[in-house]
Amino acid sequence: MTVDHVANLDRDWRRLARGVLPECLRAWARDEPTLAAFPEPPRLIALLRSDAPAASKDELLRSLVRLARDEPLAARIVLEALAPGLTRLAERVIFDERDRDELWALILGHAWRQIRSYPLERRPSKIAANLILETRRAALREFTRDRRSRRELPPRPLGERVAEPASADVDTLLTRAVAAGAISADEAELILTTRIDELPLRQLAAEQNVAYHTLNVRRLRAERRLLLFLGRSAVTFWGRKTHWSGARAFGATRTGRSTATQGETR
């Protein structure tokens, strides 16, 4: 099942716009007076997405990206303003539906990092265009690098897997993948924690103080390399609530955490 990233963003935005954002905008306006005219988030987004003069939009974006360095909710407003541009970007770069989840996660993750670290002093104008351009460069660079690393995966232990498919549990399969260098121990722990133990990815991201989309990218990339290592076609995992599908394909069950992953930092 493919995640509808646009719909998820829209739902998240409506919740925030009805909740904490109006109060945040009023508070921020004390230090950023340009925001005072937009106490309602929908009006602010409408202006930032409109054909208003670039200078007026840049004035607002300068305030928001300054705040975004320390205020995630300010970054979320900028992300919402960029959403149509990010959607057009995704439509231009996604040529294979099998890559849709991974590329969307990369686009959102890099957009978030670009917003929160935007070099305002060096690039005070054309902020939205600069953010989209840098997001495109970073996302495609990482996607290409990951594609290259997949081609360099070590040979999978095919004979061993075929000999005893029913006896292997998830921990054993992941331990073999870690030992062979297909995935890291941290990536194995991420898969175990979110796919087998069913800890929501968003909750884990909050616990680790990592952006949700960043963690999503890590898991997508690890799962794809893991499936290639195990000799399975790359598939998506969205909507799985019980066993991780790759493990189920091998008759695997959850029998206890392996020593290869227990000691890693989550």
Q: What does it look like?
A:
- It is a single chain.
- With 266 residues, the chain is mainly alpha-helical.
- 65% of the residues lie in helices and 0% in strands.
- The longest helix is centred in the middle third of the chain and has 25 residues, at 127-151.
- The two termini are 26 Å apart.
- The model is unreliable at 156-167 and 233-266 (pLDDT under 50).
Q: Return the string of H and E elements.
A: HHHHHHHHHHHHHH
Bin the strand percentage: under 5%
Helicity level: 55-70%
Total beta strands: 0
Biggest sheet features: none
| Average pLDDT over all residues | 79
Distance between the termini: 26 Å
* Radius of gyration, whole Å: 21 Å
What keywords describe this structure?
2 domains, single chain, 266 residues, mainly alpha
Summarize the structure.
Helices cover 65% and strands 0% of the residues. The chain has 266 residues and is mostly helical. The longest helix is centred in the middle third of the chain and has 25 residues, at 127-151.
